[in-house]
Design goal:
The protein has 7 helices and 6 strands. The protein is an alpha/beta fold.
Length: 162
Amino acid sequence: MKQLNFTRTVFIDRSFGEQRLASMLRGYGFDVKQHRDHFKDDEDDDVWIPDVKARGWLILSSDKRIARDALNVRAVIDCKAQVVTTSNNNTLPEFWAAAFVNGRLRIDELLNANPGPIYIQMSQHSKDHLKCLKEQLSQSARTNKAKAAGAPNDFFSGFIKF
């Protein structure tokens, strides 16, 4: 087997369901941890995110709420988590395993340059397979978004979404 050149532990959250993705990534030599082996199935995201970060693990998720729900975003920001999300959760795990394996060097490069908080999105489309998006919000947009989410006014200040 070819050297992976990827030494990070990958934590797969419950959004990927069964064993297929974890088994495939382990088959390629990744160190993989699964949500169900460390947390209750119904554990709130804002509870397990800091724990996963404290262990030094990279979060792999297809759950959009990890990047959109105010409590989850606050947890990612506060603990400086590193999160790889998928562009949708309707695609087979085999696709995401291939995408992660193929994108591992670019993911590692982005993570090394951005120690956290960071969101990296894997896409189905080759033109933007992996992208690191910086969302610059105006003060009014930041305030409106934060208020809508029930967060304090400075909630999105300094936050970069990838």
